[in-house]
Amino acid sequence: MNTTSNAADALEIIAFRLHQQEFCVKTTSIREIRGWAPVTPIPHSPYEVLGVMNLRGTVIPIVDLAVKLGMPAAQATERSAVVVTEVNGMTVGLLVDGVSDILTVAGNTLQPLPAATGPSAAFSDGIIAHDKSMICFLSLERMFGEDDPSSWGMAA
User: Start and end of every CheW-like domain (predicted)?
Assistant: First the structure.
């Protein structure tokens, strides 16, 4: 990490695992992290929507983030986590294999994705090289940025 960089260009991120790969999002979009609990399925919802969960009196959709990213469906276990996010005015829970770390990294460590990564790169702001790993920095705003939330199976 570059210790001479301004605090303004530092990125506060939460890193998590999906299928042995590391991903991260800005901590400012995170409301809380919960352990896995069974969800109530909703008929005719999109494939990536596992169902809904009651979060202190508010019903929120739970999305299998692996499916949303084009990966095989996650198998929820007692080690899985639900990352509850606030994105574009909506609360959405994201099923991940586990939360790795909360980090502050220099903004200049965020590298653009190579052009050859294809259309799935639309949800990513780049790659962060940290220690001996590469962390894909996701943009929840683009991932859940539809003008009409019902188009991806969730009400605002």
Answer: 10-149
pLDDT one-digit tens code per residue, 75-102: 999 999 999 999 989 999 999 999 999 9
44-53 long-range Cβ contacts below 8 angstroms, 24+ apart: 45/153, 46/152, 46/153, 49/152, 49/153, 49/154, 50/95, 53/82, 53/93
Beta bridge partners of 58: 55
Phi, then psi, of 19 in degrees rounded to 5 = 50, 50
Domain 8-141 listed as CATH 2.120.10.30: no
Give pLDDT, residue 80.
95
Residues 6+ apart with CB under 8 A from 119: none
- The two tokens of residue 8 are 């303004």
Residues in CB range of 62: below 8 A, 6 or more apart: 39, 49, 50, 51, 52, 53, 82, 92, 93, 94, 95
Taking the domains of the chain in order of start, what are their residue ranges?
8-141
